[in-house]
């Protein structure tokens, strides 16, 4: 008697009948498949039998099987089971039970008949094409369950010492084929199954990111990026998968910096790139800027992605600061959000060299963030815009004061800029913009001095640096006084 629909709640068997059916199926799988598995495949006979004496007898029987007998018996029972699966009503109770409880055993049987090294010891020839078709049939008719079983197998193989290498490789191949599926939904499908089966946490996110950030052996990194880039960019905007994608991008950046820049950052950081290489007066719309800020915020907050923060301030400090200056001249509600993002980016700086580089090499960009006739904001280039170094200096000190554990950085930068200022005639730091740079340094020194007035103890905590600056000042002042 078959169940006509899997959603029916009408019981078809008594409890006793269902127990008999369950045990019968279990023994069919045990005697027909599991008994003939290669050594090292994770299933053990003890998992199927509670009677230890029976387990011992079956283990002895398995030991006496030749590789040829093992392969032949496995193929025979598998042929019958697959034929039954293909010709029966897929909604039948028994078929659904086979899929639900024994799909992994069916997968393992196929893999052994296709890839086991012990195939060389048998004279029986198996149809590789047939077995591949059967695997595809199982995958197609139980897609999510199939992936779930492959994930389970992958976890079991990684935690078992004597797992066969060939089986680990084939399991990895399956996961790769799912990730790079041509329907561009493989990553979503794989991650959805994992998240549906367990509670999300940082450890799980990291483990899933490791799967995505590892280039398969059979692919070149360039090929792998072509397969995953559109999925990565799509899923970073999905709250459920965003943490995994952000961690993955950080890991990929460590291994394949050029590819991440070319294939992923070129899309996610488009406003920054447009500011740098602007060929028109238009940079981006308000909507595009909001998406960019959300992506930027997620990338630097999650887990925390130190690598991406460093990449941003080393490569795009100029553009990041100029966009804020455009916000500063507007009434945009995004200004505060963007400032908090800047603080996160620059929070990885622990040396004054980066601030010095920013001050001396900063290039003003004529950016404006203005509404159009429909009150929709746009970030644009206005070549007639005049520079405002005072706002720039206020922003630099504002960032400096907002960093955590910033006291040592503040005093060191103050003393360093003071030393540069008083030794202007002694070193060649100035360019044709000497007046502008002097003004910026003096403005920054003024803001820092206002802060240090209430924190004089910082000079004492950094007494060596303070004394060195005083000595420099004395060496310069003495000759002049003698004149």
Principal-axis shape equals elongated
Q: What's the average pLDDT?
A: 82
Number of helices: 23
Total DSSP E strands:
3
Structural class: mainly alpha
Q: Secondary-structure element sequence?
A: HHHHHHHHHHHHHEHHHHHEEHHHHH
Global Rg: 33 Å
- The percent range for strand residues is under 5%
Order of neighbouring strands in the sheet with most strands? 1-3-2
Helix content: 55-70%
Number of domains: 4
Poorly predicted runs of 5 or more residues: 1-10, 425-433, 472-483
Major β-sheet annotation: 3 strands, antiparallel
How far from one another are the termini?
114 Å
What can you tell me about this protein's structure?
The protein is an all-alpha fold and 483 residues long. It has four domains: 15-179, no CATH class; 187-268, no CATH class; 274-387, no CATH class; 405-483. It is built from 23 helices and three strands. The chain has helices spanning 15-32, 52-64, 67-87, 93-115, 128-141, 143-159, 165-179, 186-197, 202-212, 221-235, 242-255, 257-268, 270-276, 286-301, 306-315, 317-328, 334-346, 352-361, 389-402, 407-422, 434-452, 457-461, 463-482, and strands spanning 282-285, 367-371, 377-381.
